[in-house]
Design brief:
With 307 residues, the protein is α/β, with parallel strands linked by helices. It has ten helices and 14 strands. Strand 5, helix 5 and strand 6 form a beta-alpha-beta unit. Helix 4 runs parallel beside helix 5 and helix 6 packs across helix 9. It is globular. The two termini are 36 Å apart. Bound molecules: adenosine-5-diphosphoribose.
C-alpha cells in the first residue's frame, strides 16, 4: 500500500484526502498546524468507510514524524485568497509556511514525490524545490489540470455537450497570465477552433483565466476546493498507479519553451518517479509571446524571494 501525505487539513486538503481514500489510492496521513483539526477530519472520514466501502487508513496528526517514508506529499498548507487579494499578495506568508513544511519533508520523507498546491503556485513550487533539495522531477505544482478543467467546463457548457468529451490544454503560470490553447483544445478530437467563432473562444478563455477569482467572489470567505482537489487526485493517481498520464503541471524548465530556471505550466508525462518527460509543443508566435509574458511574471515573483 502506498503512503500519501496531505499537508493542510483545510478545504483543499481535506477534500483531497476524501477523494484519495474513496479511490483507494493509498493510506493517507493528513497534517495541519491546528491541533485536533486533522485528527477530527480524519476520524470523520474513516467513519464514512463502512458506507463508502473504502479500505485504506486515514490518520490525522500535528506531528511530522508521522509522514515518515511517504511516497507522495501534497502541500496545501497556507492561507487561501480572500476577495480582492491577488495570489501574489500571499507570497510572504505562504513562503514561510511552505519552507517550514519542506524542511520536514526533506527530513522525514526524503524519497517522496512532492506536489505543491499552495498559491502563488509557481513561486511556492520553486521554494519547495529549493528547500527540499530534491531533483526537480520530484517537485512540481498542480495548476494546469485545474485550469484546463475549468476551460473544458466552459467549452462543454457553451456547446451543451458532455464535459467528458472535452480535452483542454492550458500552459503558463497559474494566474492572470495563464495561456489557454484553443488550437489544442478538442471535443472528441475536433479542435474548438472549428466549432466556435473567435469571439466565443475569447470569452471562454477570459472566463477560464479568471476562473479562480470567479469562485472567490462567489464564496467570499475562501477559494475553490472541489475542482482543485479533483485535479490533485488525478495527479496523485498517475503517480501511485504509474499511469504515465500526459497532464499539464508546473515544472522546472531548463531550456524548454525558451525558459530556464523557473517553474511554469507545460504538459508532462507523470509516473511513479514524478515527471518522466516534458512535452514541447510547437507554439505560434502569439502563443509563445503569451507564454513569455507568463514566464516574466513568475521570474519577477521569484526575484523578490529571499532564499
Ligand atoms: N503547517 C501546516 N498547516 C498549516 C500551516 C503550517 N505551517 N499553516 C497553515 N496551515 C493550514 C491551516 O491551518 C489550514 O487548515 O493550512 C490549511 C489551509 O486551509 P484553508 O484555509 O481551508 O485553505 P484551502 O482553501 O484549503 O487552500 C489552501 O491551496 O488552492 C490553494 O490558494 C489556496 O494556498 C491555498 C491552499
Amino acid at each position: 500500500m502506498k503512503k500519501i501525505t496531505v499537508v493542510g487539513a483545510g478545504f483543499v486538503g481535506a477534500t483531497t484526502v476524501q477523494r484519495i481514500a474513496e479511490k483507494e489510492l493509498g493510506d493517507v496521513v493528513m497534517t495541519d498546524i491546528v491541533e485536533g483539526l486533522p485528527q477530527g477530519k480524519a476520524l470523520d472520514l474513516m467513519e464514512s468507510a463502512p458506507i463508502e466501502g473504502f479500505d485504506v487508513e486515514i490518520m490525522g496528526t500535528n506531528d511530522y514524524k508521522d509522514i515518515q517514508d511517504s511516497d507522495v506529499v501534497v502541500i496545501t498548507a497556507g492561507l487561501a485568497r480572500k476577495p480582492g487579494m491577488t495570489r501574489d499578495d500571499l507570497v510572504k506568508i505562504n513562503s514561510n509556511i511552505v519552507g517550514e513544511v519542506c524542511e520536514n519533508i526533506k527530513k522525514y520523507a526524503p524519497d517522496s514525490v512532492v506536489i505543491v498546491v499552495t498559491n502563488p503556485l509557481d513561486i511556492m513550487t520553486y521554494i519547495a524545490m529549493k528547500k527540499t533539495g530534491f531533483h526537480p522531477s520530484r517537485v512540481f505544482g498542480m495548476s494546469g489540470v485545474l485550469d484546463s478543467a475549468r476551460f473544458a467546463t466552459f467549452v462543454a457548457m457553451e456547446l451543451g455537450c458532455s464535459a467528458r468529451d472535452v480535452d483542454a490544454m492550458v500552459l503558463g503560470g497559474h494566474g492572470d497570465t495563464m495561456v489557454p490553447l484553443p488550437r489544442h483544445t478538442t471535443v472528441s478530437g475536433v479542435s474548438i477552433t472549428e466549432l466556435m467563432d473567435d469571439d466565443t473562444i475569447d470569452r471562454l478563455v477570459e472566463r477560464a483565466v479568471n476562473g479562480g477569482a470567479e469562485i472567490v467572489e462567489l464564496l467570499k470567505t475562501g477559494s475553490a476546493f472541489y475542482a482543485p482537489s479533483a485535479a490533485i487526485t488525478a495527479m496523485v493517481e498517475s503517480i501511485v498507479r504509474d499511469q504515465h498520464r500526459i497532464l499539464p503541471a508546473a515544472v522546472f524548465l531548463h531550456g524548454q519553451y525558451g525558459h530556464e530556471g523557473i517553474y511554469l505550466g507545460v504538459p508532462v508525462k507523470l509516473g511513479a518517479n514524478g515527471v518522466e518527460a516534458i512535452l514541447e509543443l510547437d507554439l505560434t508566435e502569439a502563443e509563445q509571446a503569451m507564454l513569455d509574458k507568463s514566464a516574466e511574471a513568475v521570474k519577477v515573483g521569484i526575484s523578490t524571494l529571499d532564499i
